[in-house]
Records
---
Amino acid sequence: MEESEPIRRELRHAVRALSARGLAASARFCAELLASLRSETRAAVSASAVATATSSMSSCVCGDEQSLSELEQDVYLVAKAYLDCREYEQCVHAISDEDDRTHDLLFFMRYYALYLLGEKRRADEMQPQFNEFVSSPLRDDTYRNRMVPEILASMQARRSARDLDPFANYLLGVVLKRERRWAESRKALLRSLSGFPLNWSAWLELSVVSAEMATSGRAGAAHNVRASLDAILDPISVAAKSWQSTSRRRCWELMRELGEARTYAQNALHEDALAKYEALSDALPSSAYVATCLAVVYYEMRDFDQAESRFRDVFHAEPYRLEAADMYSNVLFVKEDGAELSMLAQRCLRLDKYRPETCCVIGNYYALRQQHESAIACFERALKLNPMYSHAWTLIGHEYVELKNTAAAIEAYRRAVDLNPTDFRAWYSLGQAYELLSMPLFALFYFKKGATLCPRDPRMWCAVGHVYEELDRSQDAIRCYTRAMDCSEEGGDAVHRLARLYHAQNRMELAAHYYALEFGRLEEDGDEGPEMAEALLFLAEYECNLAEDADLAESFHMQCDHSRSASIPCDISQSVCRLVDSLTTLQGIFEKA
């Protein structure tokens, strides 16, 4: 039997256990992971292997339907049928208090259905607000899941009498997260994962809780996320070494890698996430999930060519896949690839026109065609299908900016950060909106929030530095632009800003250094616009004042001569031409020397 068979055996059990409890998303994740691990030869498993798998699963059963009495099985079957039909009240009613006290499976299903009922009512309460959202700000605590107090009380009562099983601990972690009790939520989720590491939903919740706890710390968010993950997962990894089941131990190691990669990606630690997903791609070459995550990370790193290539490979291999289609449409929108975006929109419509991802793809298509009202309607439809889809609020904000409706854009961005406080794009967009309103102090607050959440993105620091410039805080601006250069090899706008600031402070040597960097970058890009002319003019003046290097003077002489025909402003061109004569005179002096 091949080496992956023990993990596949655990995954088969996990799919059954998760499906039995209505955790469809986690069951699907494990099933896809199982499919990516299947043998290339698809050889039949021997009879002895089947016997081993059966006995292994029986020993690992954690309160599934096989251990129910006949009466309890009847209750379970009807409750599960109601849960599958999304008739949550019926599911709760079908399981009496006496039933949920006797068996972990029935206890979990009753209160999981109660939680889903509260979420459904919460979503229904949010729906009427879409048409008048500008006048009625949405906060995450405006519409609450009113079932949470009852669930918490029952969980605490049961925990005082007996230990909660991994699935009950997962549900406890979820409801504690709803109450923003981050530390307690994290402990419950860790208890769940140590007992059942293949519950992917628990890993997703843990990544959100870890991000919330990290961003509330004093140190940088990135450092806090790494330290937090290591601190909470290392003890379980140490304990896992003593587990008797080798397959369970290997499942924990695999899920930890997947969970850490997800957390890094969610917290804008793109380099760390990329390294994790590259390693996972080698271990799981057939995994569509890992391939999709790699494409998303490249998009977040603004490597749009690589992201497009990866997405194209994923959707070619999985023609009926809709997950991350919205991210793919973002890539195509940025690249202004209208033809490919149109094809993607048509494909999504054929598959399922009532999926939030489909609405987002169509909205991006309309946005690319400058049909902003139609785009907003599509994004709002996505929110009606999934009120927690925060990215749609950010896209609505972008469309209102295009329509010059800054007030509506700000409210849309606020809703995005209310739903997802770790979304640095929404914070950054809020700062840009307040810049449009000439409110630099507000803009500074939101830009700094974005920089805290995504400290490796040079755009965040350039935005903060620009506001500091407006506030005449030059030294703070210099620190921000220097930080931006540390985040990017090219430097981008930060180099030009630093050169100007040092020039204004009469720190000519530093100004010359950054203008030289700017000139080299623009020359490599073939950009002969005003910024190159400005850099060239300063460097020419600087060398004239030094009058020390004949070769350098000759070099700028040639560049200035070329700039006579360049597309640059008239006043700068005239200044450069005057310097040509000075440099020519200097060249004659150097030749006589």
Note: The chain is about 75% helix and 0% strand.
---
Amino acid sequence: MEQVVIVDAIRTPMGRSKGGAFRNVRAEDLSAHLMRSLLARNPALEAAALDDNLLGLCAADAGAGF
């Protein structure tokens, strides 16, 4: 890795933890959607050029496994 940069930021939609609209959507599927969206918003960025991406949990609650 030669250079570390923040290219963009994006978040998943909000929903209730139990019984909400995303209750049957896996975290991996939401993450894949985020990555596709980021690449679409930044056409000069090639997916093959990415070494890592960081995902975080900002508001942990009972729906996050606690």
Note: DSSP finds one helix and no strands in the chain.
---
Amino acid sequence: MINSFRLSQALIVKNEEDNIERALSWGRSFLDEQIVVDTGSTDRTVEIAKRCGAAVYHFDWVNDFSAAKNFALEKCTGDWIFFLDADEYLEPADPIQIKKALQNAAAQGANSISCTLVNLSDTMEELDQAVLIRILKNEPGLHYYYPIHEQILFPSGLKTYNAAELLTIKHTGYTREAIINKDKTRRNLEIINHYLAQNPNDYVMISYLADEYRSVQDYRAAVSSYYSAIEKMPDSLSADSQRAIYTFCYLMEILVTLYTASEKDTQLQNLAKDISIQAEQILDLYQTASTVFPKEASFDYWIGYFYYKKNLFRDAISAFQQTLAKLTAHPNALGQINQNFIGKINALLGDSFFHIKDYEHALEFSVKALSLEPYNPMAGTVLLSVGSALIRQKAATLDQFLPIVTGLYSLQNTKNLLFLHHIASGISFKEFEQKILSYFTEEERAFVFHK
């Protein structure tokens, strides 16, 4: 029990022997019950789940995740239910943070809690993030609908507390290896297409169809489906229509990525030509999306990135500053770009200012970025490039510049030294490179030169 709240965990699983133990371990010490609904595993999933102490129930699979989740809801007795997939886990699993989220949600009269979801690559590097509902108040009449990418329905209406800054879930299920191993895309497409055959104008499910194409980099099909979803959206959308927001976000992301692809990436360049992506198309989409959802920062980010990649740095600066302003004014934004991107946006601003030789602002934003992400390579490069430029112009000396660096980094830390040396070497900032080398021990210096 967390404070006065009983907390249940519920999982829908099939052949998850590689994930089930981790899925049941992260919160075992403070969860009141763990409910596992198995839909037909032929591996050791059920055995492991029982060994971990979970209550395991069997459900005959009917190609409908909502049906399985609604069955799980019937088994949960907690005041709140933590609904995760087997390939998701809370990190860190901090009961104090969960308690704070539950208390805040209860105080605000919320019946659901959203968390940050981080999608991980095969090498466990971050791919992207989203803010999604993962904790539900166990109210009478609560149920799911849609056979896949299930939506929540509370009879009293959905009231969500945003705990994105408190709770982070790591998700390994959409790495390319996991997609191949589980054939999730084929399964998902089958379920979605079956639903759309009966409900062809449902923009939400058309958008999820586009997501499936995006996940396997079938960008042609994804673009077509996202536009189809937009065409079928109702004339009036509420500010919390998250699926509509993500439809615009993901479409902008793909169009900008393809249109600004480098000459080395001929496959993406050719695809952009085949789809006939035009700059005006991207600008029109930005205008439409930002008109429908004026508080959403994601669209300003993507138009800023479009300008940045096209070397239109003054336009990029304006768009990125607008992104930060919206994230500050609306910290609980529902879209793709959220508080976790502030470091990256500051780095892009720093680099944009550097390109127009505004070294004062380049320094300001690179320092802001590095205070949030100490090993951000772009921000580190801008920081040292500004220092190099100022010293070449005799506007500063190395001794005057060094305190800016030491305000961010301890030069007694080997990782910091390696990072700074690598950046300095890459931009041929010889004077600073030699200075950093002087802080290495003999053994460390030998290692650096050996490499």
Note: The CA atoms of residues 152 and 402 lie 54 Å apart.
